[in-house]
Amino acid sequence: MARGLPAVIGKRILLVVGGGIAAYKACELVRLIRGAGGEVTCVLTEGGSQFVTAMSLAALSGNPVHTTLWDLKDEAEIGHIQLSRSADLVVVCPATADLMARMAAGVADDLATTLLLATDKRVLAVPAMNVKMWEHAATRRNVATLRADGVEVLDPDIGDMACGETGPGRLPEPPAVLAAIQRLLGVGHGPLAGRHVLVTAGPTHEPIDPVRYIANRSSGRQGFAIAEAAARAGARVTLVAGPVALDTPAGVTRVNVETARDMAAAVEAALPADVAVMVAAVADWRSADAAPLKLKKDGSGQVPALELAENPDILATLCASPRRPALVVGFAAETHDVLAHAVAKRARKGADWIVANDVSGDVMGGSHNAIHIVTAAGTEALPEAPKDRVAELLVERIVDALA
Ligand code: CTP
Questions:
Q1: For the residues of 316-356, what is the DSSP string, one character each?
Q2: What number does the ligand 1 atom closest to the CA of 312 have?
Q3: What lines the ligand 1 site, CB under 6 Å?
């Protein structure tokens, strides 16, 4: 079982596998659900069978795989109505643009769509498709219809896709899908169950031209550790991550971004949240106008002047927003006068807490951290510890503050 994730023991999942390259991740999802004590029965669409075989899903799930409405044996022994209702939850993963369009329209022309129309259970759709297809007005409409009908449609991850394009459309990682399943089954537990925690992490990259960017040394590790600790405490976690080479923690929904402006938009889109922990080392400045073509030396020895523009302050904007989370925690990475700067930063940004860390050593990118938590009540010093221990201690403080 994925570390720290609560079990789905004895719960039955009917998994509809649609036709997309992300179908291979459905195999991993089957493994995760079973590892967490759940039972899985798979329905494979015709498109899905182009990407994974019924044999693989049968072997992984330990159950027969259903592929057609017209299997007399199944109709006699199970029947599609019964199949759709014997589950505790129906999960469509991957949910292609076509499958969601047919669901939204109430079409029932194959086993998958018939089950989806006949079920009396909650339905979770996990989309995966090309970015243009996800952003198309028709898909936006269908997703809105499905959500209005009570279908839980996850947002796809943002990032590089099999088709070579980048943007929203990637299937969320299987642990994040499992976390959504647990949430819908109401089996999530822990002191933050039912809470939404938003975390930003990592650096941002601000393009100078297509091949160069402004960045900083943030590894993202402290933010990822906080996201993981919050998920372990039972929270639904959205992790808005700058470009870092870290795996998504189990049970966390990750949104990948490049620039500060992307990060600001992703934070806004993730609201409402109960808690925001802004750990990202957001670039203060970006190139005022990034060159569309690579800047070249002209041989004269003249260096280009880089004009900078200030990035939006995501933390301050969030604190001033009408949708401000009840608890907003900022980080302050300082090389000198750490506490004085943190106290001033707390007031300036309007955050409830500022977590101050001294980055004069090798903290940025390193494995340990020593922090001070600056609140309205004063300052608490935590001893130097590995970043995941620091994350646990901070999450304990968050649990206490919400209690
Ligand atoms: N932050 C943010 N958006 C920015 C800059 C910072 O959300 N454009 C957040 C960080 O995620 C962190 C906090 O604000 O939680 C403090 O970041 P820091 O870089 O230390 O603060 P700055 O405002 O940039 O102050 P300075 O660089 O002058 O110390």
A1: HHHHHSTT--SEEEEEEEESSSHHHHHHHHHHHHT-SEEEE
A2: 8
A3: 200, 260, 278, 280, 282, 284, 311, 313-315, 330-333, 345
One-letter amino acid of 280 = A
Nearest to 193 by CA among 155, 154, 227, 232: 232
Atom of ligand 1 nearest to the CA of 332: 20
In tens digits, what is the pLDDT along the chain, a chain of 403 residues? 444 445 677 899 999 999 999 999 999 999 999 998 899 999 999 999 999 999 999 999 999 999 998 875 666 666 778 888 899 999 999 999 999 999 999 999 999 999 999 999 989 999 999 999 999 999 999 999 998 787 889 989 988 877 788 888 999 999 989 988 987 786 767 899 888 899 999 999 999 999 999 999 999 999 999 999 998 898 888 899 999 998 878 767 788 899 999 999 999 999 999 999 999 999 999 999 999 999 999 899 999 899 999 999 999 999 999 999 999 999 998 888 999 999 999 999 999 999 998 887 776 767 888 899 999 999 999 988 999 999 999 999 999 999 9
Q: Which of 206, 284, 341 best tests ligand 1's pocket when mutated (most atoms within 8 Å of CB)?
A: 284
Domains of the chain in start order, with CATH, are 12-185 (3.40.50.1950), 196-402 (3.40.50.10300)
Q: 3-class SS at 171?
A: coil
| CA-proximal residue: ligand 1, atom 8 (nearest) | 313
Give yes or no: 93 in active site: no
Q: Identify the CA nearest to 25 among candidates 170, 167, 141, 182.
A: 170
Distance of CA 316 from the midpoint of ligand 1 (Å): 9
How many angstroms separate the alpha carbon of residue 71 from the centre of ligand 1?
Answer: 61
Name the helix (H) or strand (E) containing 254. strand 252-256
Q: Which of 27, 42, 163, 319 is catalytic?
A: 163
